[in-house]
Amino acid sequence: MNLEQTLTDELASVATGIDVPPPPAVAAVVQQAEQSRTRSRVRWTATTLLAAAAVVAAVVVGNQIGRPNAAPSPTGPTSTATMGTFPLGSPLRTYVDPAKGTLYIDGTPQPGAWSDAVTLGGLTLGYGRTTSTDGATDIGVFRGTERIGVLHDVAGPVVKVSPNARTIAWVEDHHTTGVIVVADVTRSAVHELGRLSAATLVAKPDDESGEQLITVGDDGTVTYGGVTSGHAWRPGGAPRATDISSLMYGPTGFPSRAEEVRLDPTGSWGAWLTDARDPAAGGGFASWGAVTFQQPGRPATKATLRMPAGFSDVRDLYWESDTDVVLDISSGDTSTELITGHVRCSVLTRRCESAPTPGSP
Amino acid sequence: MALRSPARTDLPPPSYEEYVGARWTALYRTAYLLTGNHADAEDLAQATLVKAYLAWPKVAAASSPDAYVRRILTNAFVSSRRPLRVSRERLVDQAPEVDVPAGHDDDRLVLWPHVAALPPRQRAVIVLRYYEDLTEQQIADALGCSPGTVKSTASDALRALRGRIAQTEGERS
After folding, report:
1. Quick check: pTM over 0.90?
2. Per-residue pLDDT reduced to its tens digit, A340-360
3. From CA A259, how far away is CA A267, in angstroms rounded?
């Protein structure tokens, strides 16, 4: 057998023999991209551990005490749910109307056209709709409902926020070099604390030799690095080598099977999506249908809030505050991935509520 | 048709929408060859489109948008340490089996089942080399490695395929 010719023939045969599904709706891809852009742009960097109460779930509780690696127990089917299944809660604290581009912060519409936003503590970062030909995104910085500055030329665009939300850092792409900028955001304007140039920071997302900004601390110390090296730098000082291995691969202290754990702003709790597998189903894929909380390194605090039937398609989660997680709910139509609702779950009360969007009836 | 387009002309760069419409089929076919099943192929292709959108000004301005997108696709595939659907759905119990496309006589596909069983980087090199018909340098660009690494990876993959063919034939005899 001519192995290489057979490979060529078979791969061509397989590729042309498959049924190619229709392309996804571009609008849905764009929405997914904008959502992923915001979710990946902001990373809380807290590591503080706080005590908290034991866990009781609201909808259904899957208490995993003593079984830190166990999957949540599947529950029997319940009646098909709607948003009305949950008590009506307060509107989302931060929301961008995808049709109009209006940014709402605590119910107050902001001037400008926005693609997404996130609020951390009293700080909101709003991501402007891209209008420039080079794709640059302006980022509005809000303290409360007051806009205190606009960031330009942010690489990524990724902005790191310190645990107390009083300091931010980002990288500016100056083509041949990257510049880390650290700023205080406690005043009525974004106040720069210092800048540091490093050629390794030029944005090359797929280049493993490159470095990236990783965290910013409350005192303005940033960590940055890559696969081969790590550094720490505080404005006014000189960079020094540091071990960043613990920072590169996400939060620790959670079950090995937990994926994409998101820490709350203080680092007290982690939350991640888990599956909602129908026990009668065989192998294959199961949709996310539950959220699990746990304090880092404390498996006894782990608990799962499972969405009722009809909500078995949770697309994403983010922390709205130190205690509340918002779940983005999809229609379940994987061809569109449109977000159709939001559910807010409290780690304190172990209860969930629907979170209407500002401006909605 | 592989993920390759004719040489660029003086035409303006395509819009994102135009690109998706024109290149989806090619993108999906390559994704299918990389993943070996429709579910992961669709996720990989869509994830690639999401990343391409986020970098669209650079993609459209590139001398070869297809090469840029191919790099996104292969890196997304090779770097994924887990099932592609894990961000929204997770794999349970058993990995899906490699699909045999409709209309194919399973016995006629001697190598395909073994290609799908290769480690991701080897599989990517095989697909880029023998389906996309890329040079070692082009594959190196797509995977972000040296041509030497491509050469050694391809050699390892071909050796593994020969070994598995020999093993299969030995079991049949």
Report:
1. no
2. 788 999 999 989 999 998 876
3. 16
